[in-house]
Amino acid sequence: MADKFQSIKGFYDVLPDGGPDGRPSTALWHHLEDVARRVMGMYGYRNIRLPLVEQTHLFVRSVGEHTDIVEKEMYAWEDALNGDRIALRPEGTAGCVRAVVEHSLTYNGPQRVWYMGPMFRHENVQKGRQRQFHQVGAEAFGYAGPETEAEQIIMLARLWRELGITDVELQINTIGDAEERHAYRQTLIAYFEQHMDLLDEDARRRLHANPLRILDSKNPRMQAMIEAAPKMFDALGEESRAHYEGFCEHLRAAGIDFVLNTRLVRGLDYYNRSVFEWVTTKLGAQGTIAAGGRYDTLVESLGGKPTPACGFGMGMERVLMLMQDYGVTATDAPHVYLVNAGEAAQRAAPLLAERLRDGGLSVSVHAGGGSFKSQMKKADGSGAAFAVILGDDEVAAGTAAIKPLRGQGEQRTVAQTELLAALAE
Ligand code: ATP
Ligand code: MG
Questions:
Q1: Is the Cα torsion angle 54, 56, 58, 62 positive or negative in sign?
Q2: Do 279 and 383 share a structural domain?
Q3: Domain count along the chain
Q4: What is the model's pLDDT at position 267?
Q5: What is the mean pLDDT of each run of 10 residues along the chain (425 residues)?
Q6: Are 366 and 339 spatial neighbours (Cβ–Cβ below 8 Å)?
Q7: For residue 194, what is the enclosing H or E element?
Q8: Where is 75: in which H helix or E strand?
Q9: Same domain flag for 344 and 281
Q10: Cα(418) to centroid of ligand 2, in Å?
């Protein structure tokens, strides 16, 4: 026998019945996708579809050189045919901004867009952390006020409600604008330099390039020192403070609970002012299910006109795990499994199935013959609500038998012309 192939580590199949170790079924994926699509439509977000591959430099420029993503997680290579340096997208915002600038999408005014699809990061594989994972993302371009990021949060709160997820905590922070952050960086660097002995290797490397990221460190040895570090909030000017106050007011007015987490800085460089994460304690270490914030200078730094913007990315695998935790289920079982035994019945079954489909039902037609008994087992296993049974006698009489497969109900025989109506009951 030839060797079997296996999928690459960190890359998973999504199977109709779900995967080993409890991975969700495609039906549950569809449920999440349907609800997400509907909810984002309710807020005027429109779908944009972007390539999975972009110039590597786009991510270096937007996500930032001294970030986990660019330093160690990006699938980037040189195209053997033309030498282009290209990368699988590790996140969605960069490509989205590239498209907005390339097509002047804000020429006629602000735009709200959303997307959904795979992202790629070469990470340590663990629960809730794949190398190909999927995000639903939304971005709003041309809106400067804090009501827009607040609205994105309100939209996510609705999404959680409609998905049956409760108990996720909203953490917010404000990281100021570029100038304020620059001043704060100097303060932070000076502070960390006083504690060089406590800094780990990552932190030392980032000390001058990206000291804010040190605040984000999970190293237990550094926690007390980080906790005592100067706070960004104290470095904010009038406007940034007002923006932050406005952001909080909009959330309060919408009845959305939140906590201020002054260590929340986000792993990507392009953010400014409002940043936020939705966090659950139910998924272990990988507890952030959605994260985002404002990025008012990114459009300009990628060659567009100055355009305020904000957005978020939601991790679909983590949300699906949470849905499973809350007992949310979904099915793609057909309405009807059509059992057919005998030559005439086998010939008639596909036509009868078409009539039922014309009436809006989904029908699995048994194929491959076999006894009534073995076919009824398949019918049961299919998850269908009803078996419709067709033998040569029924064909001759123009009838079919209906057997409810879930719950109570006797088998009964009806005329084929009455079948749709009988099933609709
Ligand atoms: P983390 O701190 O967990 O690495 P991050 O800050 O790198 O997250 P973002 O770039 O903000 O993540 O992506 C937004 C969301 O996408 C995350 O909150 C998470 O739900 C999801 N996500 C990110 N990386 C992965 C991954 N490797 N596998 C599964 N989901 C992921
Ligand atoms: Mg990460």
A1: positive
A2: no
A3: 2
A4: 66
A5: 94 92 95 98 98 97 89 95 96 97 96 98 94 98 97 98 95 91 90 92 88 87 91 90 96 97 79 94 90 96 96 98 95 96 94 96 95 95 95 95 90 94 88
A6: yes
A7: none
A8: none
A9: no
A10: 58
Same domain, 284 and 388: no
pLDDT for position 212: 86
Pick the atom of ligand 1 nearest to 129's CA: 28
Res 210: pLDDT? 83
* pLDDT given at position 182: 86
Whether residue 6 lies inside any domain: the answer is no
Same domain, 278 and 347: no
> What is the C-alpha to C-alpha distance for residues 229 and 403, in angstroms, rounded to an integer?
70
Domain encompassing residue 361? 336-424
Co-location of 244 and 321 in the same domain: yes
Q: How far is the CA of 217 from the centre of ligand 1 (A)?
A: 15
Question: Beta strand 288-294 with 272-279: parallel, antiparallel or unpaired?
Answer: antiparallel
- Determine the pLDDT at residue 409: 83
Pairing assessment for the beta strands 272-279 and 259-260 based on DSSP bridges = unpaired
pTM of the model: 0.92
- Domain match, 250 and 387 both: no
> Do residues 243 and 94 share a domain?
yes
The reply to whether 229 falls in a domain is: no
Q: Which ligand is nearest to the CA of 267?
A: 1
Asked if 402 and 336 touch (Cβ cutoff 8 Å), the reply is no
Q: Identify the CATH number of the domain in which residue 121 sits.
A: 3.30.930.10
Ligand nearest to C-alpha 266: 1
Q: Tokens 């403070």, residue?
A: 241
Residue 310 falls within a domain, yes or no? yes
Per this entry, what is the length of the chain? 425
Compute, in degrees rounded to 10, the torsion defined by CA atoms 293, 177, 59, 49. 40
Query: 325, 344, 363: which is the final residue of a domain?
Result: 325
Residues 133/89, Cβ–Cβ less than 8 Å: no
> CA angle 236-293-224, nearest 5°?
60
Q: What are phi and psi of 87, to 5 degrees?
A: -145, 150
Q: Output DSSP code: residue 176.
A: -
Best residue for ligand 1 mutational test, from 286, 314, 322, 323 (most atoms within 8 Å of Cβ): 286
Question: What's the gap in Å between 68 CA and the centre of ligand 2?
Answer: 7
Q: Is residue 18 part of a domain?
A: no
Verify that 289 and 356 share a domain, yes or no. no
Output the pLDDT for position 285: 83
Q: Which atom of ligand 1 is the closest one to the Cα of 277? A: 18
pLDDT of residue 222: 92
The distance of Cα 290 from the centroid of its chain, to the nearest Å, equals: 8
